[in-house]
Amino acid sequence: MSQHRHPGAPGSAGAVPALPDLPEATVARLPEYLRALHNLADTGHETVSSEGLATAAGVNSAKLRKDLSHLGSYGTRGVGYDVAVLIGQIESVLGLTQNRAVALVGVGNLGHALAGYDGFASRGFRIAALFDADPARVGEEINGLVVRHIDELPRVAAEESIAIGVIATPAAAAQQVADELVAVGVTSILNFAPCVLSVPEGVDVRKVDLAIELQILSFHEHRKASLTGLPATGGSALTALPGGLAATDSQEAIGT
Amino acid sequence: MSQHRHPGAPGSAGAVPALPDLPEATVARLPEYLRALHNLADTGHETVSSEGLATAAGVNSAKLRKDLSHLGSYGTRGVGYDVAVLIGQIESVLGLTQNRAVALVGVGNLGHALAGYDGFASRGFRIAALFDADPARVGEEINGLVVRHIDELPRVAAEESIAIGVIATPAAAAQQVADELVAVGVTSILNFAPCVLSVPEGVDVRKVDLAIELQILSFHEHRKASLTGLPATGGSALTALPGGLAATDSQEAIGT
DNA sequence: CGCGATTTGTGCACGTCTTCACAAGCGCCT
DNA sequence: AGGCGCTTGTGAAGACGTGCACAAATCGCG
Ligand SMILES: NC(=O)c1ccc[n+]([C@@H]2O[C@H](COP(=O)([O-])OP(=O)(O)OC[C@H]3O[C@@H](n4cnc5c(N)ncnc54)[C@H](O)[C@@H]3O)[C@@H](O)[C@H]2O)c1
Ligand SMILES: NC(=O)c1ccc[n+]([C@@H]2O[C@H](COP(=O)([O-])OP(=O)(O)OC[C@H]3O[C@@H](n4cnc5c(N)ncnc54)[C@H](O)[C@@H]3O)[C@@H](O)[C@H]2O)c1
C-alpha cells in the first residue's frame, strides 16, 4: 500500500489534459497488461481481444475491459484492441515515456542483485546511481555504475533528476535513508526493508517484503492441511480437476 | 493475487476445529502485525493497545481491532493486548509453528541474494534446498547449502517435505519449474519471474514483481507532476492539501 | 464497593472492486 | 445493402473492505 491522494478532490480548474483518475486497483493491473501486450507484440500479434489479453494477464475479461475503458476506449468492437496502440496508451498513462531515474541505496546482498538486473532498463527505468554507507563498498563498480557514498546523495540528486528511490538497506537504516531521499526531493520510494516508513504527505511508498509473502502462503498451506479430511487420491492428481475458467491458461495466448 | 478457493463450497463434512476463514485482506496484514509485535517484545513491552500496535504496523486502529477480532479476541478491555499471547495466536493462525521447508529454484543473481538472506529462518522458514539447471552452478555452496541439479527435485522432495517453492529463474523457464514443483506435491509457490503461471486448482501462487512496483510508482509520480500545473496560487502549493489522517508516523512506536 | 478512565469489540454506513449480462457498434459475407 | 456474428463498453447488483462511533468490559483508585 501507499499513501493516498485526496479522493474527493474539488473540480479545481480542471483544464488539465485528461487525467482520468484511475482506480488504484486498475493502476496495479496495468503493468501486467503491458507486459502481456509486449509479449503479444513480440510474437507478431497485431490485435488482441479482451478475452485473449485477459487470459494472458491472468485476469477476468470483464475486469480487463473495465480497466481499459477507464483510460478511454482504444478498442474496436467486433475486432479487439490494437496491440501497438494499447501499449502506447498504457505507457503514456503510467508515465513510462520518459525514462525515470532510479537511485538504489544499500548495495548489499539484495542490492547487488537489483543493480545487476536488466529488467529495469527494458521497462522504462534507468538506475542512475548506487549508494552505500559502508566505505568498503564505495568505489565498487557494478554493471558500469560506481557505488557512491550516501553522503553524496544531495550532490548527485542535483545533477540527475531522481524520480524513484529504492531502499535495500537493513531495516534499522531504512527510515534514515528514507528521510534523506525525501530531503533531496524524491517523492516515490520502493522499500525492501521489513519496516514501516514514515514519510511526509505527498510521498508514495511501496513495500516489498519477502517474509510477508511467505507467511501468507504459509497461512493458506496451513488451511489446506487442515482440510485434508479427504484421502488425497494417492499420487498423480496432476492432470485432474478441469476446474473451468478459473485459473489461468494464458500459456497458449502467449507462448504459441 | 493468487488462485481462489471455490467460494460456494458445499458443506462437505465441515467438522473441522475452528478455522475462522479470515478475510484475505486480514491475512495479508497479520504478518505486519506480527513483525511489529516482535519489535515490541524485543523492546520489553508486555502489552500494547490497538492504537499503539496500529501505528507500529502502519494501519488504522479500527482496522487492526477488527482484524484481530476475526481470530478470536485475545485482548483485555481497558488494557490492551498481551504481546506474547498475540504473537502466539498469530503465529498459530498463520501456521508458523512448524518450520516450513522452502525450496529455491534458480540460483542466479536474485537467487543468490535470497539464499544468503537470513530473514527467512527468523520468521519460521527454512531453506531446505537450492536448485539450478546450469551444471556450472550445481555443487556451489551458499550459506551451508549445496546447489543441486533441478533433476534431483523429486528425490529431495521425497526426503524433505517441501512446503513452499520459490521460483527465481528467468521467465522463460518459470512455467516449467512451476510444473515440476507441482508434480512433486508443492502447493504454494512464490514467483519472482515476470510472467503469469498456470497451475492446477488448489495451488497458491504469489508473485513479486519489481518492475510492476516501479511502474505503479511511476504512475503516481506522473500524476503528481501533472498536477503541478496550477501556478495560480503563486508558488509553494507544496505544503498545502490537508488531506487528513492518511499517512504514517509509526516511528515513535517502534524506533524510539 | 462503586466510579471513572480506558480500551476492546462490533453494528452500521459508506466507498471500492468485481462480475454478470447485454445493448451498441463494427466488419465481413452474401 | 443488409444481415449476422463477434467484441467492446457499461449499467447494475452484489461482494468485499474500511472506518466511524459507541456500548460493553475491565482495571485502578479512592
Ligand atoms: N537478501 C534478500 O534476499 C532479502 C530479501 C528480502 C528482504 N531483504 C531486505 O533487504 C534489505 C537488504 O538486505 P541485504 O541482504 O542486502 O542486507 P546487506 O546487509 O547485505 O546489505 C545492506 C547494505 O546496506 C548498507 N547500508 C547500511 N546502512 C546504510 C545507510 N544508512 N545508508 C546506505 N547504505 C547503508 C550496508 O553497508 C550494506 O551494504 C534488508 O532490510 C533485508 O531485510 C533482503
Ligand atoms: N535480479 C533481480 O534483481 C531481479 C529483480 C526482479 C525480478 N527478477 C527476476 O528473477 C528471475 C531471476 O533473475 P536473475 O537476475 O537471478 O537471473 P539469472 O539469469 O541471474 O538467474 C537465473 C538462474 O536460473 C537458472 N535456471 C534457468 N532455467 C532453469 C530451470 N529450468 N531450472 C532451474 N534453474 C534454471 C539459471 O541457470 C540461472 O542460474 C528473473 O525472472 C528475473 O526477471 C530479478
Task: Give your account of this protein's structure.
The structure is a homodimer of 256-residue chains. Chain A has 256 residues and is α/β, with parallel strands linked by helices. Chain A folds into 3 domains: 24-93, Orthogonal Bundle (Arc Repressor Mutant, subunit A), CATH 1.10.10.10; 100-208, 3-Layer(aba) Sandwich (Rossmann fold), CATH 3.40.50.720; 211-253, no CATH class. The first copy, chain A, is built from 9 helices and 10 strands. In chain A, the strands form 2 sheets. Chain A has a 7-stranded mixed sheet, sandwiched between helices. A 3-stranded antiparallel sheet of chain A has the order 1-3-2. The longest helix of chain A is centred in the N-terminal third of the chain and has 19 residues, at 24-42. The first copy, chain A, is globular and about 60 Å long. At the A-B interface, helix 1, helix 5, strand 9 and helix 8 of A face helix 1, helix 5, helix 7, strand 9 and helix 8 of B. The complex binds nicotinamide-adenine-dinucleotide (2 copies). One nicotinamide-adenine-dinucleotide (NAD) sits between chains A (105-111, 131-134, 137, 150, 168-171, 173, 176-177, 192-194, 210) and B (113-114, 117, 119). One nicotinamide-adenine-dinucleotide sits between chains A (105-111, 131-134, 137, 150, 168-171, 173, 176-177, 192-194, 210) and B (113-114, 117, 119). The first copy, chain A, binds a DNA duplex (30 and 30 nucleotides) through residues 7, 23-26, 49-51, 60, 62-63, 65-66, 68-69, 73, 75-81. Chains A, B: Homodimer. Chains A, B: Residues 1-20 are annotated as: Disordered.
